[in-house]
Specification:
Blueprint: H1 2-12, H2 25-41, H3 64-84, H4 89-104, H5 118-133, H6 141-161, H7 185-200, H8 210-220, H9 251-263, H10 271-283, H11 286-291, H12 309-320, H13 325-340, H14 356-373, H15 375-379
Length: about 375
């Protein structure tokens, strides 16, 4: 009995002890316009966002190609946001230039024996073009051929980097082999809906069993306590009271994994399961607030890292859109409050050490979150 009480306290505290602030559509429109303004004004001349270089002294020491992977991954977030944004001539131009840049990039090689950060560029590039390919604005033969050709290159690389357990990640563990041996639930999960679209809607040539293996890998990460394990392994570990695999350390992984499995038709990820994950996010949100901008990864309670903040909230927005229409706005109101509070005067956002690719990714996620919560309004033409 005492052990159960201690476990409950560790999982639930410090839960929000007052009703969380909520923000409506009017505030969301203003914040979205500011975020989009930053995105458009900070696009590079070649169509990209961010730069392939260290952001600060604490960012030094990774392989040369890691910084290109960071930039390409951050860049991929932004077109995903712009696909959801209300269209204007400036937004459309930025979106097309951003997609064109993605289509032209070379596949990044492995940076070091343990450093596979180029994977961020591969997964987010694929995610961006898969979602662009089903957008009616890009239905022309020119765009579709370009998307399909680029997807073929990325799928070859994804096949080469998929671990025996079925997933993908950005680092590796010994023994170092050409095919990585370490994968994470969240890196794998973010790719699943794009692969599902590619295989079932676009008829792209996804390698045999790639999607099936990846879905099974994420499914195995689901733990009895409601969390998803950080990495993919045959025997998930980590049940200490302050472990990263407790719900308080899995708040952002819960969102992306639930969304991915639901989009891929895994039956036990029901609306109630989605609501449970969102409830965890808002009740235990303090742990994420404490980790944001913490300079050392996994150094805060439950091994949370600041750079998961906007990532997790973006996929929470995707989860909300899977719920019945009549309850979505209530969830979006809560979600907006947790991201708009962090927007800077210039419209940008940041959740880890200040820097160009982190700022581009965070602001892209912010626009993604806000635009997704206004989609119903856009569809009605209001």
């Amino acid at each position: 009995m005492i052990g159960a009480l201690i476990l409950s306290a560790a999982l639930l505290g410090p839960a929000q002890d007052v009703a969380p602030r909520e923000l409506g559509r009017d505030e969301a429109r203003v914040a979205l316009d500011r975020a989009l303004g930053w995105i458009v004004s900070n696009q590079n001349e070649d169509g990209s966002w961010a730069l392939p270089m260290p952001c600060h002294t604490e960012d030094i020491g990774f392989s040369h190609f890691a910084y290109y992977g960071y930039r390409e991954g951050a860049h991929g977030v932004v077109p995903r946001a712009l696909l959801l944004a209300p269209e204007t001539p400036a937004i459309r131009e930025a979106l097309e230039r951003g997609l064109a840049w993605t289509l032209e990039q070379s596949i990044l090689p492995r940076g070091d024996d343990w450093d596979v950060d180029g994977t961020w560029g591969v997964v987010y590039s694929f995610d961006a073009i898969a979602h662009a390919a089903i957008d009616p604005r890009f239905a022309s033969e020119k765009w579709q051929v370009a998307f399909r050709e680029r997807a073929g290159e990325l799928l070859v690389e994804l096949d080469r980097r998929q671990t025996l357990e079925g997933g993908w990640a950005y680092y590796d563990d010994p023994p170092f082999t050409e095919k990585p041996t370490w994968a994470t639930s969240f890196t794998t999960a973010l790719l699943l809906p794009g692969l599902h679209v590619a295989e079932n809607e676009l008829d792209w040539k996804v390698p045999e069993h790639m999607l099936e293996r990846a879905v099974e890998a994420v499914r195995r990460c689901a733990l009895p306590n409601g969390a998803y394990s950080y990495d993919i392994s045959a025997r998930p570990e980590g049940y200490d009271l302050e472990d990263i695999n407790q719900p308080a350390g899995s708040l952002c992984r819960i969102q992306v994994c639930n969304w991915a499995l639901a989009k891929c038709g895994v039956g036990w990820v029901t609306p109630d399961k989605l609501r449970e994950g969102l409830d965890w996010l808002f009740r235990l949100h303090t742990w994420l607030d404490m980790a944001r901008l913490e300079p050392i990864p996994h150094h805060k309670y439950y091994a949370n890292s600041g750079y998961f903040y906007f990532f997790g909230h973006a996929y929470a927005a995707e989860v909300i859109e899977l719920l019945p229409r009549e309850e979505r706005e209530g969830w979006h109101r809560k979600l907006r409050a947790e991201v708009i509070k962090l927007q800077a005067d210039d419209g940008a956002a940041i959740d880890f050490l200040s820097g160009h690719y982190l700022e581009a990714a965070s602001t892209g996620y912010l626009a993604w979150i806000l635009a997704l919560g206004l989609q119903e309004e856009e569809e009605k033409g209001t």
